[in-house]
Amino acid sequence: MDMRRRIAIIYDFDLTLIPKNIQEYGFIDSLNMSPDEFWEASAVVGNKHDMDSNLAYMYTMLELAKKNNLDITYEGLKKLGANIEYFEGVEEWFDRINEFGKSLGLEVEHYVVSSGTREIIEGASIYDKFKRVYGCRFTYDDDGRPIWVSQVVNYTTKTQFIYRIRKNVLDDFYDSYKVNEYISDRSSILPYENMIYIGDGQTDVPSMKLLNSKGGHSICVYDPSSFKKFDVANRLFNEKRVNFIAPADYRDNSKIDSVIKNILKKVSIENTLEELQND
Q1: In the predicted model, what is the mean pLDDT of residues 208-221?
Q2: What digits encode the pLDDT tens for the residues 89-131?
Q3: What is the distance between the alpha carbons of residues 85 and 169, in angstroms, rounded to a whole number?
Q4: How confident is the model at residue 140, as a pLDDT?
Q5: Which of 33, 122, 236, 276 is the 20 to 30 Å CA partner of 22?
């Protein structure tokens, strides 16, 4: 495949494609807790042990489940994905953008890089729209019960996946050599200009800044019903950490729809001009 014709759109998940954190679609309810109570318990664990916040929430999930005699399994977590509610237009978004890209001679790929629970995302109705989904996940015993953490995706490790997507080294996490290996044939690497990152806030800043500094594109979305979320997005824009901000409204003719389509047009035009130069 001509890498100039390939587009990678990378999404955070929680508060970017969905209006709440993914654990709030059934898991926290099963503990007979409110979201505030769960996240406060996670913060207590994190602060007590000076722990990464994502490790803290994963530990808290297991410990509170144990205290409440809740039997967590891989399949049980995956089934929670059926409860997910999306921002307006999300479920129709991917096919529409793919078709628009195709009309320009571009192949659009979608990826998730999230600090949310991957197993729950796997049960989502849009899961098959993504080429890969990266998120926090557990290791399971032979009965499908979690025994350890196998992957943690936090605000800085998110950038690892940008390099993986760019080099098409999408798997083999145990082997760090491949993703860090120098590739002499630059034509086999996805140009940064063909990469778009969509997130909602501070945990996405390193990924946004990486793409911004390399000629890629970043968009901060916000819940259109929340002035607080708009304020976060606006501050990131004013600090030049993102290229665009937009309401998390993915319907046709929305602002983010227009931004993405115009980025795709730009890539297509630049490809055509380069071809004319070399003709």
Answers
A1: 96
A2: 999 999 999 999 999 999 999 999 999 999 999 999 999 999 9
A3: 31
A4: 97
A5: 236
pLDDT, tens digit (0-9, with 9 covering 90-100), for 145-155: 999 999 999 99
CATH of 3-20+85-278, one of 3.30.70.120, 3.40.190.10, 3.10.690.10, 3.40.50.1000: 3.40.50.1000
DSSP 216-255: -EEEEEE-TT-HHHHHHHHHHHHTTS-SEEEES--STTSH
What residues contact 24, with CB distance under 8 A and at least 6 apart?
Answer: 35
CA distances from 225 to 17, 71, 124, 152 (A): 14, 36, 23, 30
- In angstroms, the first-to-last Cα distance of the chain is 20
Provide the total of helices (H) and of strands (E) in the chain, helices listed first: 11, 7
- Which CB contacts under 8 angstroms, 24+ apart, belong to 90-98? 90/17, 90/18, 90/126, 90/250, 91/125, 91/126, 92/250, 92/251, 92/252, 93/250, 93/257, 94/126, 94/129, 95/129, 96/252, 96/257, 97/9, 97/257, 97/260, 97/261, 97/264
pLDDT tier, 11 (very low <50, low <70, confident <90, very high otherwise): very high
Q: Distances from the Cα of 271 to the Cαs of 3, 212, 277, in angstroms?
A: 11, 20, 10
Band of the pLDDT at 185, cuts 50, 70, 90? confident
pTM for the structure as a whole: 0.96
Domain residue ranges of the chain, discontinuous segments joined by +: 3-20+85-278, 23-81
- The answer for residues whose C-beta is within 8 angstroms of residue 4's C-beta and 6 or more apart is 191, 194, 267, 271, 274
* Confidence band, pLDDT 50/70/90 cuts, at residue 1: low
